């Protein structure tokens, strides 16, 4: 047992000499007494546990543990021996002096100034029931305290990576003890993320979140993002790569081969995100409509870069064949998807453009290739109305022809089915075009009730949407409902008229139920004469835990801050989440996602607010869920920076579990 003591008031030299003599005596018994304020400052701490707490105190093997003692004149600490059912003395202290022989365990230190025990490196044998008797200067008892100390092994973290828009979220769960460090890497280069406040679970373990603004849409296929976590002296990591695009491309012949060997060597590169598909794909060539000799074709093996798999087929032609202008085509079939690419030399004569439209997220790209001369004009249309796109720089191919690209920010996700987008190109006085239409679905679908109605009006409003490409059929279709095998009251059903969006026709029937009926788990069926769709609330058996993740410090007023409400349970089922700011109206989060891991389902609701609002407001995550007790009462968790900054410091009970 080591005792550390600090003197804050001025003492004369004689007393210091006297104390040093006492220290020399104590060192013989393995007790060290420190006097300087600097020494005391190096051991200042916030206690992990206190003898005044009623819950057990948890510690981790190999980690320090701080125990707060009451500020009394005399302290007598004993431990219960479970084998003999007797109490063995750990030490006895009067004022600042140990008056009874302490334990010879040098891992234990007593800091008299703030009445704290420090276990420098906890061991399993430190577990047990401890009793502390306290007395004042006259020997009168001031009370007895007991503390159950539980020392457990470290619990390593589990790591999940999630994509949120342009960002990646690293969710680190179930680790103990609390300290850990997080590092982000893009490929092998370290990049900076934003760490949120570490929170404690009900079980005593911890969870943490870090977010990397990765700008995923501009990442190259195969880029690897890694979240690296160091905990308990060990490193754990998880990585994520943006999906590789499936494509087939012919690279034109390099000049070196044409000059040195008088041959044109063309490469056809097949790229995909499924190794088995890329390996099994057959690549074939034609030159001027004919298959080349087998000796002129060579196929390489599959290579991997990040999550992208590539296979290359090489065709060698005599330069006379290449310069003849014959069209060379490379084609393949992967999982019943056939694609091809073509190339030919351009000899300076007029060449019309070839046009392809490609969807990229919410945008449409018009790729215009193999035209000569360079000058051309591009126009975009949405249905019959001209809209504005963005033209990229026209580039020259190795063959002497040209290539151009124009992009239209079309917001495809909000486009009506059947909307037609046209890229119109004018080249040498002639017009060429290609078009793309948003898909028309022929379907019957029940949309689940929105959270807003459940929260504000305590009703479940379900929509049954019938979509088809024949107006007559959609108009004539009868939509009917049942809830729990019974037809609802006529007043609870409303049928809208037929609407048209492009070539798609839609009719919507709306059913309104009391939330008690919806949360009872009754099966709801929407039917027409041709098809039916059904839906019901899924009920679990355990109430979910709700945690709000947020940055642990105030942010700049110009920043945008993201908060995440995590709702999780081993049998989580239907859950509805909304937010409140300063107790105002319910608002929906900006996005929602779910994670299934082992037997646990987690739902994340993501809310983004300005930094100024974040620093000054209270945020509430409100949850309605279904469970076996058929309870659908509202559960709310709140957080605010004001609370985090203004609360008085308190003793922390740190629970560590593996």
Automatic annotation (TrEMBL):
What Pfam families has UniProt attached to this entry?
Answer: C1-set
- Gene3D superfamilies membership: Immunoglobulins
Q: Which CDD domains match?
A: IgC1
Q: Where is the Ig-like domain?
A: 165-241, 242-340, 361-437, 442-536, 544-635
InterPro entries, alphabetized? Ig-like_dom, Ig-like_dom_sf, Ig-like_fold, Ig/MHC_CS, Ig_C1-set, Immune_Resp_Modulators
Membrane-crossing segments per the record:
25-46
Q: Which keywords appear in this protein's UniProt record, sorted alphabetically?
A: Immunoglobulin domain, Membrane, Transmembrane, Transmembrane helix
Task: Spell out the protein name for this chain.
Answer: Ig-like domain-containing protein
Species name: Pygocentrus nattereri (Red-bellied piranha)
